[in-house]
Amino acid sequence: MQAFAVATLNGVSYGLLLFMLSAGLTLIFSMLGVLNFAHASFYMLGAYLGYSIAAHAGFVVALVAAPVVVGVMGAALERTLLRHAKANGPLHELLLTFGLAYLLAELVKLVWGLGSVSFALPGVLDGPLIAWGDATFSRYRAFMMATSVATLAVLYLLLRTSRTGLVLRAALTHARAVEALGHDVARIGTLVFAVGTSLAALAGVIGAPLAVVEPGMAEAVGSIVFVVVIVGGMGSLGGAFAASLLIGCVQTWAVGSGASLGSLAHIAGVRLPPVWASLAVSQVAPLVPYALLVAMLACRPRGLFGRREDDA
Amino acid sequence: MMRKRRAQAGSGSDHRPKEHARTPSLRAGRIGASLPWVVVAGLLAAPLTFVHSSGLFAYLAQACAMIVFALSYNLLLGETGLLSFGHAAYAGLGAFAAAHLFNRGGIALPWLPLAGGAAGAAFGMLFGAVATRRAGTAFAMITLGIGELVAAAVWTLPEGFGGAAGVSIDRGSGPSWGAWTFGAPREAYVVIACWTVVSMLAMFALGRTPLARMAHAVRENAPRVEALGIDPRCIRLAMFTLGAFFAGVAGTLTLVDVELASSESVAMTRSGAVLIATVIGGSSTFFGPVLGALVLTGMSVALAGVTRAWPAYLGLLFVAVVLRAPAGIVGWWGAPRTRVERDGIRVAARTHGLGALAAAAWLAALVILVETLYARRFAADAGGAWYLGAFAFDIGVPSTWSILGVLIVVGAVATRCARRARRRACARANGGVQR
Question: Do B322 and A95 touch (CB under 8 A)?
């Protein structure tokens, strides 16, 4: 029971991290109409930059500086390249972000090398926070949860209460009307891109000590984040939130579970061939998000909270 | 809705240059249309006359599989307007099925691609039924998810995929055709080349069927097709299944070439490679993907032997094509010809000469910069320098920086002059029209 509770807490902290990524992705998609394929590359860039900055100036500085640097980079890329590709249609924008992801991975290999780097935990946050028998919930995970909740709360307040947030929310749905009222929608788009990429970078910095920081990490996280966005329904922040927590928890439970496929099938009343039955659930955990995606699409093609005619 | 309309307008404009290029005179058009076929046939038959260079053999066998793969991908991207990120899944699953069938015995090697294609089509129909319910960005993300699912499944599931080692075949062990056992590389190459030509002809013919015309209509305006009483999903699914069939054929050709189906054959990098090849070559013409496949395989074989930085060059080429030449290399090739027709040879030669000078200078600067950075990172034991003849480039040496500076200045000036010349030619052409 305690193990299950700790696994759920771990799952929620992982889910919140996923939501920091998918929230930026969803905002950018709603505002600019392009699904940023390179989003996870900005997450990776954040992790690497955080590693470098933390080594020189400490973890707290990295926590602030890396997202700012990545956000500025994101804004520059949006202004120079993405706007150029817009003339050729959304598929070309998607292709451009695919190319950017490829080039950012090369850049990371060029600057930091092919191997993985180890991101040391800050001393204060090292060690368990809660211990129930064998199951422990680490301090760092608590810090991760607190940081993501705080960031998302600030973002929510900015969106709900500030004037920029008001204009931004209007521009998400009625870009033409907002433009006619004299607001620079293109600049708001750049702002959204910068905020989204810096959110991804922040997720990279706080996630780095628990993840393996290597050039392949963008690909590993990226496909999960896209699954989150599709399962939640494209363009829906609430859907992204629900899907992030769902996938975070389900995957953490699967990794921590001691059951085998055979015992699960036994409960369901199905007999599996012995090779399959002896396979542990934790072994097939990487498949879980994708299987969930296929199941979701077969039952409900628009995702949890997606709109029906969203085909673009 | 707005976004959707823009999407269709955008993808529609990509396909217009093709119609333009076709118009001139009928006979010239016919010769021009058959020329690429002659070139491809010559390229495929050449190694049979001078067999001794085994490097060329390996390159062409690899290129053949990539050509079929890229063309099958273009059935989705070019014909139906569907961007897929997981096309390698069907090639890889087809290859696995073919490998098992071959190891059980009973099938001769020349028939194997058919079996692989059938398996690819079966999986394509299964996953396509889920994926083709959506189009556009959602379709792209769903194919990405399915591609990851298949790649992860090949890693984790014990049965059928042989784990990390993969499933290997011995192509000489199957039933022989007379004296041909297909064990020798030359005999295997004949099988691969024949299947490449057959697949190319089949896909070319497919592009002329009513189904492909319907696919074009779905690409341009799906709601209108729906209003005509035809379900766009069915058209998408049919094209997806056909694309998966030829992907399975391509995967089996790779299997015949390397005698191994492994997790690499379903990997996302392979899906990315076919996407890059198709876009670089140009998705709006039939021979665009063929050219793209040749360029990609050429880069991965020839350039990889020369420099470590070849993935960076490939990525830069891809981004340059997406930004500056949305119709790919093939479409970009047609642009000078129309300009010569408009401006006359002299003006066109001057603008293009200046443009070429600018491009050469920028390219040289880029190559020097990239190579110097890569040398500093990856060739530290050689002192972080790289050599062009006897001349050493090093990031810490002023001569490298001064060469870079000169090239950038030359490039900037030439770009400026070329832009001004182009604007003047444009103004003159427009003035002529008005008069």
Answer: yes
The model's pLDDT over A208-218, given as tens digits with 9 standing for 90+, comes to 888 888 888 88
Q: Identify whether residues B204 and B247 lie together within a single domain.
A: yes
Q: Do A298 and B130 touch (CB under 8 A)?
A: yes
Q: Looking at the partner chain, which of A110, A284, A289 has a beta carbon nearest the beta carbon of B373?
A: A110
Contacts A277 to B, Cβ<8 Å: none
- Spatial CB neighbours of B49, under 8 Å, sequence gap ≥ 6: none
Per-residue pLDDT reduced to its tens digit, B68-118? 999 999 999 999 999 999 999 999 999 999 999 988 877 888 889 999 999
pLDDT in tens, A142-198: 888 999 999 989 988 988 898 888 888 888 888 889 889 988 888 888 999 999 999
ipTM of model: 0.87
E strands in B111-246:
167-168
Q: Do B3 and A91 touch (CB under 8 A)?
A: no
Whole domain around residue A35: which residue ranges? 2-214
In a domain, A261, yes or no: no
Which residues form the domain of B28? 2-332
* pLDDT score at B5: 41
Written as one string, the DSSP assignment of chain A is -HHHHHHHHHHHHHHHHHHHHHHHHHHHHHHHS---TTHHHHHHHHHHHHHHHHHHH-HHHHHHHHHHHHHHHHHHHIIIIIHHHHTT-HHHHHHHHHHHHHHHHHHHHHHH-SS-B--PPPGGG-SEEEEETTEEEEHHHHHHHHHHHHHHHHHHHHHHHSHHHHHHHHHHH-HHHHHHTT--HHHHHHHHHHHHHHHHHHHHHHHGGGS-BSTTHHHHHHHHHHHHHHHH-TT-HHHHHHHHHHHHHHHHHHHH---BHHHHHHHHT----HHHHTSBTTTTGGGHHHHHHHHHHHH-TT-SS--TT---
